[in-house]
Design a protein that fits this description.
By secondary structure, the chain is mainly beta. The protein has 6 helices and 76 strands. A hairpin with a 7-residue loop joins strand 20 and strand 21.
């Protein structure tokens, strides 16, 4: 009998077959076994996962009887391939570890790394009369994260226990939430028969080809629920068109920028980008810290004008007004309010924060003014025309400054009046703006400069200013009003939106930025640069050139620099994304630099600010890397901004003549844009800022320094000949000869921080990629193949749109994607660790070479040359600069960097092989400095505990020792070292104790080499057999891992040969597991043996 049965996840799975044997007791005439499958268990509550024991018990004694009567059992299995059960094989051959007891009829099976999909397991019971059988289906699933899993779509299990073939239009959700995907319109070039694949790595089960209107519809927001606060996803996809920019892979975003979307980038191809929400007008305003911000987009019967500033001071709609009219701000669509010009206004009660006294402030609003009333206020806080006040209003012209002689014009006016002192400051525009057109109005008063500035539509508005007496104190107890002033008979006939007041004077750059954000959806080409230029930089290099050798300085000093003739790639995706299409420059870490004339000496103890966007790609990052430096080449430094690495992340450092000083922790990530800034405050202290946030770390010893004439200004290096060279992209370098305020630096980040997370890895036709994302309400991260490739704080507005969640196109149907999808999982929240786990768990299905049925429990490191490229395929033969990152297949993600390989020749140096047993994929060494290095990673620290190191290697015997694996930076043997001796045998070190083996491995043949420490005793194995044992108790020191060389400590320890596999476990493998691992990959290597 045949029926589906599923096993409980992440625990021992026990399946009992009811009444397989109902043999009578002795003395009763025998009959054949009677078979009954019993009650089916219901999917998806139960299934099996690899590395968890499955027990199938075919031997169930008839109730009331003690034993079976002369029964024996056999077991066979078949795996489903493309929905059809394949050829039968003995259950001992199940992938993983399996044993079957023919007497008891019990199967014990722990599925291995390569086990996935449905397996038909058939038990045969035989007595004296006959043989009968019963079959169960065990679904083996990958051990991906189940925490907060909301929707689980898997093409291998598209119909729960099997793949789908034919024209099925429903993709079953494997969770109990029932979020099935509906296949809509055309897939697979015009049909709905889009289910493809045979279950192999070269042809995984998939849904494709998605074209045109073809899509998977997951419903109207039912899947994502409250994802506006947090969400995560993971999917396996492959594209069919790398130049299909803006095509939407997945999302529920609409044209208003709501929701989230994963798409092929329109910034730079062929990359992916992930966006949440949209950086709208409100985001720009809120980033500038308004004291009060009344959006005036309220609708319905409300009388409350909501203040969305940090501390709300709600107002009240009064008199004649109409809510919900067409909005004025295209960069943030919404409603507006129209006041009737007779009685309508907003009243905001008096409060201390709306009194600016004799201090600075700004008044801002969008308005379409239509009436001819004189002295009708836009925003005012006053009780009468002669009372203490601040007031931005439509007025007649004046020649006196106190508005006692108004005329018939409709000018824009500002009046700041202190009735007690009789002093005032006032302004009257040259142009009339009560013209029935939409305008952005901003009036500022700078109390330090004692100056009014007025901007209309982002530009300074010409006009006349008047001054009388001392700086006026504008405090008054009357309310703030919009469209009227307390005690005034004149009301403004106008439509309003986005009114705000600030307790400081906004800059000209902010004025332009706010206007750009309101009218151009934040995509104006000068959106970011406005603020920088308005603060009068000493130098400003955007590094956005697409060609040529000049790095232009956009400041008034025009101190243009020169790009080096090599080592710089122009036209890379910039830090600003869609907020500004300007590109960045990539520096190779060796030759790339910009050199300009040294900026003028700021003097000792001067005020200086240095800011830049950086995208470090340094792999080992155990040194110091210069972003900006001003001084004499390599000998004397006025000031500098430097990064320092600890092997994992980078820290921000200040530099002066005395040296370098940390002003942050090691928190700057690689492969992501980060805004960094440092200020010298003129008192011998330097302060750091990362992504607009004060690090809270000050270097008291830092100060700028005077120096002799001459010298240079450097970007990406410290000298004309190179040194401390930066590797990665740099963008928007700005230097100010004043200490920028915390608000200004936060503003640089806010206006530059964009809402699109761009991948570093490139997609390719036919190449399967794991793509994941996490949004926690503040931070957005994009992952590819388990690695975090981008992390930003987009500062966006996120709301759930009225659009369904779609895979394969956007809601409008205009941005259709072309490609295939194998799996899609949605989570209500997620972690980077879960992304790494999901990749490691699901990758075997898509890897072009099988990782083998290896032991996976406790696996800390898994470098496989056959899967070195992004964990799914090998690199091309050679050592191209794009092929120097060896992907760790374990969840640790301890990737190795291939170093000092040049003039590579397949077979003797660099990546080699074609995947045959005679020519397997491998990394070849020729006795030079070439090596693979893993920077220090705490996850590889084993201390005094058990561990296992494993390699597949092919070496020759040399006159010197040859390092295969060393986690021993000091070179003392206090770590873990694996060598080939000058006699060709194996030597291993653990905690300064070593042993030499007797088996020859330097014979030009492939060998499986393993070092195991268990309870303080280490044993080395060659080809599965014990080679030496020695006592090795004690703690193993932490350091980087070096493979193939021991440079620079021991220059003569370079290897001649090849390494195909390097692994490390945080436990001691058993002898049977060592044999399992050896046999798992033996077929890859001609002549390999496993004892």
């Amino acid at each position: 009998m045949f029926f589906p049965l599923y096993c409980l996840v992440l625990s021992a799975c026990n399946i009992s077959i009811t009444q397989l044997n109902t043999d009578p007791p002795p003395g009763t005439p025998p009959s054949g076994p009677i078979l009954d499958g019993g009650g089916d268990q219901i999917f998806p509550s139960h299934y099996a996962t690899r590395d968890n024991l499955v027990t199938v018990d075919f031997n169930n004694v008839q109730p009331g009887y003690a034993t079976d009567f002369e029964m024996s059992y056999t077991c066979r299995f078949q795996q489903f391939v493309n929905g059809v059960a394949g050829g039968a094989s003995d259950c001992a051959n199940l992938p993983g570890t399996a044993s079957f007891d023919s007497t008891s009829g019990i199967l014990l099976w722990t599925p291995g790394l390569t086990a996935f999909g449905p397996y038909v397991i058939t038990g045969y019971g035989t007595n004296k009369v006959a043989t009968a059988s019963v079959s169960v289906v065990v679904d083996v699933r990958q051990p991906y994260s189940l925490t907060n899993l909301t929707c689980d779509l898997d093409a291998q299990f598209a119909n729960f226990s099997t793949p789908i073939s034919g024209a099925a239009t429903s993709w079953r959700d494997l969770t109990t939430n029932g979020h099935d995907g509906t296949i809509v319109a055309s897939v697979n070039n015009g049909t709905t028969s889009g289910w493809l694949g045979t279950g192999s790595a070269s042809s995984p089960y998939e849904l494709g080809d998605l074209f045109g209107a073809g899509r998977v519809d997951l419903g109207l927001n039912t899947v994502i629920g409250t994802f506006q606060n947090s969400m995560a996803f993971s999917t396996w996809i492959t594209t069919q068109a790398t130049n299909n920019v803006s095509s939407v892979v997945m999302g529920n975003s609409n044209t208003l920028g709501q929701g989230y979307v994963l798409k092929q980038s329109d910034l730079i191809t062929p990359r992916l980008e992930l966006a949440v929400g949209h950086k709208r007008y409100r985001d720009v305003v809120l980033a500038d810290a308004p004291t009060g911000y009344w959006r005036l987009i309220d609708t319905g019967a409300t009388t409350t004008a909501v203040d969305v500033a940090t501390v709300a001071h709600n107002g009240t709609y009064t008199g004649g007004y109409t809510l919900g009219v067409n909005g004025l701000v295209s960069g943030d669509p919404g409603q507006a309010v129209t006041f009737d010009g007779a009685s309508g206004y907003v009243n905001v009660a008096d409060t201390a924060v709306l009194k600016f006294g004799a201090g600075s402030f700004s008044l801002e609003t969008w308005a379409n003014v239509t009436n001819a009333n004189q002295n009708a206020s836009l925003i005012a806080k006053r009780s009468s025309a002669t009372a203490t006040q601040y007031n931005m209003f439509v007025c007649g012209g004046t020649a006196t400054g106190d508005f006692s002689d108004v005329t018939t014009g409709k000018k824009l006016c500002v009046f700041i009046f202190d009735s007690g002192a009789g002093s005032y400051r006032s302004y009257v525009s040259t142009t009339s703006y009560a013209d029935g057109a939409i305008h952005h109005f901003l009036a500022t008063y700078d109390a330090v400069a004692d100056a009014i500035a007025v901007y209309v539509d982002g530009a300074a508005a010409a006009g006349t200013t008047f001054t009388s007496g001392a700086v006026p104190n504008s405090d008054h107890t009357d309310p703030l009003r919009i469209a009227n002033a307390s005690g005034a008979a004149n009301f403004l006939s106008a439509t309003f939106q986005e009114a705000a007041v600030y307790a400081y004077p906004l800059s000209s750059g902010q004025a332009k930025a706010h206007f750009d954000a309101g009218r151009n959806a934040g995509t104006g080409p000068t959106f970011y640069a406005n603020n920088i230029l308005s603060w009068q930089p000493k130098g400003y290099w955007r590094l956005g050139e697409s060609a040529g050798g000049t790095a232009y300085d956009f400041s008034t000093n025009a101190n243009d620099g020169a790009y080096s003739s090599s080592g710089v790639v122009l036209g890379n995706a910039g830090a600003l994304g869609a907020a500004d299409a300007d590109t960045s420059a990539f520096f190779d870490g060796t030759n790339g630099r910009v050199v300009a004339t040294r900026l003028s000496d700021p003097g000792a103890n001067a005020f200086v600010t240095v800011a830049a966007w950086v995208y470090p790609t340094i792999a080992t990052n155990l040194a110091t890397y210069t972003v900006v430096e001003n001084g004499l080449s390599g000998s004397f430094f006025n000031y500098g901004l430097v990064l320092s690495g600890n092997g994992v992340n980078l820290a921000l450092m200040g530099r002066d003549t005395a040296g370098d000083c940390l002003v942050s922790g090691y928190v700057i990530p690689r492969n992501a844009w980060t805004h960094v800034a440092i200020t010298f405050n003129g008192a011998g202290a330097a302060h750091g800022f990362i992504n607009g946030v004060d690090t809270g770390t000050t270097c008291g010893a830092m100060q700028t320094s005077a120096s002799a004439a001459g010298g240079n200004f450097f970007i990406g290096t410290r000298t004309t000949a190179g040194g401390e060279d930066f590797q990665g992209a740099i963008d928007e370098v700005a230097v100010f000869y004043h200490a920028a305020s915390a608000r200004q630096i936060a503003q640089m980040y806010s206006n530059g921080g964009f809402w699109k997370c761009l991948s570093q890895s490139k997609i390719a036709i036919g190449l399967w990629d794991y793509v994941g994302g996490i949004w926690d309400g503040t931070n957005l991260s994009l992952f590819m193949n388990g690695r975090k490739e981008c992390a930003i704080q987009p500062g966006t507005t996120f709301t759930n749109p009225s659009s369904a969640l779609l895979f394969g196109r956007d809601a409008s149907g205009q941005l259709a994607w072309a490609g295939q999808v194998g799996e899609l999982r949605l989570y209500s929240s997620g972690t980077a660790a879960a992304q790494a786990t999901n990749f490691a768990a699901t990758a075997p299905r898509y890897q072009t070479t099988s990782p083998g049925n290896i032991a996976t429990s406790g696996l800390l490191l898994n470098l496989d040359a056959a899967l070195a490229k992004r964990g799914t395929l090998p690199f091309a033969n050679g050592c191209a600069t794009s092929d120097l990152a060896w992907t760790d297949l374990s969840a640790t993600q301890a990737d190795a960097t291939v170093e000092a390989f040049s003039a590579c020749v397949a077979g003797t140096l660099g990546w080699s092989g074609n995947g045959t047993a005679a020519n397997p994929y491998r990394l070849a060494f020729n006795g030079t400095f070439a090596r693979a290095r893993i920077p220090y990673n705490a996850a590889l620290d084993v201390g005094a505990g058990d561990f296992t190191v494993e390699l597949w290697t092919k070496m020759s015997t040399q006159a010197n020792y040859q390092n295969l694996f060393a986690r021993d930076d000091a070179g003392t043997g206090a770590g873990i070292d694996v060598y080939v001796t000058p006699t060709g045998t194996l030597r291993t070190w653990v905690t300064s104790v070593f042993a030499d083996g007797v088996k020859t491995i330097g014979d030009g043949a492939w060998h499986h080499v393993v070092l195991v420490r268990r309870s303080g005793t280490s044993t080395q194995y060659v080809d599965g057999a014990t080679d030496a044992t020695f006592a090795s108790a004690g703690s193993v020191g932490g350091s980087s891992v070096i493979i193939g060389s021991f440079q620079p400590l021991f220059p003569n320890y370079d290897s001649v040969g090849s390494v195909a596999k390097v692994a490390m476990y945080g436990r001691a493998l058993s002898s049977s597991e060592i044999s399992q691992n050896c046999n798992a990959l033996k077929s890859r290597f001609a002549g390999a043996v496993c004892h």
